[in-house]
Design a protein that fits this description.
There is one protein chain. The chain is of the alpha/beta class. It has a single domain, classed as Alpha-Beta Complex (Amidase signature (AS) enzymes). Helices cover 36% and strands 14% of the residues. The strands form three sheets. Strands 1-3-2-4-6-5-14-15-9-7-8 form an eleven-stranded mixed β-sheet, with helices on both faces. The protein has a two-stranded antiparallel ribbon with strand order 10-11. A two-stranded antiparallel sheet has the order 12-13. The longest helix has 23 residues.
């Protein structure tokens, strides 16, 4: 088996090969590093690569296995970590020149738990500054490219992890999602990404400075649904350092994974009552709905409308959070911040306490609406984004029949209108590949579940993956 074939195997299969001693962790890690050396010059998926540390961890994994010790479900498996997760002893830049030389003395909760799985951390993947764009570019690393077409962006803000997995540098990785930052790059790069129920994965150590967490969570990304379910299980669970983390026991995400969707009631919407969609995306998404009917679910159109566009409350809370976390940097050296971050901070400074209170009220109303909706439906299906990945900094000028002029701090909201809703509502949501659109670029369908029902979202994603496998087609850069 060559390096490419090895790296496109699911992480859980790689793990089993290590346990069965078909391959060592060192051999697998070396294969991953060779792939990175070959493909990284075209993709720029990593900000920091830790070859020495990865090989040392792999050596330890092999030594422990020889003693009969298996650390966890990803023992010995190479994995990519987004550079918004704090890593002890390994440079953590947060995509910002302010932190370009920062080597933390602690791990984020997600990284603590990731290490406990026995995984081998390859390095830190490319991200825009503080995760603040739907594209992946910053001033401390080359712009990240999409493996399907390097002239196009891979999405953001977990674009580096998505590009690494899609190109077969590794099989699995971590992202984070505050407005779509796991699901969007998953869709744009043709992989699977899951945004967990808000609070299931604690966020301590996930940012440079703490602030009220209105939307963000770590989340798994992979070429295989089971891999993401394994990682989601490992990272979830209450932590006293994060008062927003869910205290109830973590559900079993793996046990029901193969149970399918027969008997489920599923609602479909092409617009979420928010936006038009380009024809190529609509065609791929609509054709995917039939798979759920074939699998035994009751699938019906969903008529949904919002009294207020959910984006507005999300934007208020997001930019207020930017002031809380990074406002001091704008006062110290505004010229060193990326323009998109500075614009967010400057907007946040114009907000009043009443503005934030209104946004919090609107979010609570949205959460209530979603609770009521999921009394009728087990799942909702919607597009992940309204357009396929576009050329760098050149978003589509039209979405459907409308001019695309909806922009905030450079973020082209008009092309990505469907993800922020579920960050504000706290619902779990996955993006899974469902076809291809313009230029042969991947299209993703979003599978959304009831609050704290990640198990059903993952189960439905696995059923769809089985019915409509996508992994046989590989990107240009792979």
């Amino acid at each position: 088996m060559n390096d490419r074939e090895l790296m496109y195997l699911p992480g859980h299969r790689q793990h089993q090969m290590i346990v069965d001693k078909e391959i060592s962790s060192v051999e697998l890690t070396e294969a991953s590093l060779r792939r990175i050396a070959e493909l990284e010059p075209q993709l720029h998926a990593f900000i920091t690569l830790d070859e020495e540390g990865a090989l040392a961890t792999a050596t330890t994994a092999d030594s422990e296995l020889a003693k009969g010790n298996i650390s966890g479900p990803l023992h010995g498996v190479p994995i990519a970590v987004k550079d918004l997760e704090v890593t002890k002893g390994l440079r953590t830049t947060l995509g910002s020149s302010f932190f370009k030389d920062w080597i933390p003395d602690y791990d984020s909760v997600a990284v603590e738990r990731l290490r406990a799985t026995g995984a081998v951390i390859l390095g830190k993947t490319n991200t825009p500054e503080f995760g603040n764009r739907e594209e992946t570019f910053t001033n401390i690393a080359p712009t990240c490219n999409n493996p399907w077409d390097p002239a196009r962006m891979p999405g953001g803000s977990s674009g580096g992890t998505a590009a690494a997995i899609a190109s077969g540098m590794c099989s699995i990785g971590t992202g984070s999602d505050g407005g779509g930052s796991v699901r969007l790059p998953a869709s744009f790069c043709g992989i699977f990404g899951h945004k967990p129920t808000h609070g299931r994965i604690p966020r301590f150590g996930g940012q440079a400075k703490p602030a009220y967490n209105s939307a963000g969570t770590s989340g798994p990304m992979s070429n295989d649904v089971r891999d993401s379910a394994i990682l989601n299980q490992a990272l979830s669970g209450f932590d006293r350092r994060d008062p927003g983390s869910v205290k109830t026991p973590t559900p079993d995400y793996l046990g029901p994974l193969e149970d399918g969707v027969k008997g489920m009631r599923i609602g479909t919407t092409m617009t979420l009552g928010i936006s038009d969609v380009n024809d190529d995306v609509a065609a791929a998404v609509e054709s995917s709905w039939a798979a759920f009917t074939e699998l035994g679910a009751s699938v019906e159109p969903l008529d949904i409308k919002f009294d207020k566009v959910p984006k507005d409350a999300w934007w208020t809370l997001w930019t207020a959070g930017q002031v809380a976390m990074y406002g001091h940097l704008a006062e110290e050296r505004p010229e060193n911040l990326m323009p998109y971050t500075l614009e967010m901070i400057n907007h946040g400074k114009t907000l009043t306490g009443a503005d934030v209170a209104v946004a919090l009220r609107d979010v609570q109303n949205l959460q209530l609406k979603m609770h009521q909706l999921f009394e009728e439906f087990d799942l909702i299906l919607a597009p992940t984004n309204a357009a396929v990945a576009w050329p760098h900094l050149d978003p589509p000028t039209t979405i459907g029949s409308r001019t695309n002029s909806d922009e905030m701090a450079g973020i082209n909201y008009g092309a990505i209108p469907f993800t922020m809703v579920f960050n504000s509502s706290f619902n779990p949501a996955s993006s899974i590949p469902c076809g291809f659109g313009e230029g042969g670029m991947p299209v993703g369908i979003q599978i959304i579940g009831a609050y704290d029902d990640d198990a059903t979202v993952l189960r439905a994603s696995r059923a769809f993956e089985t019915a409509r496998p996508w992994v046989g087609t590989r990107p240009t850069v792979s």
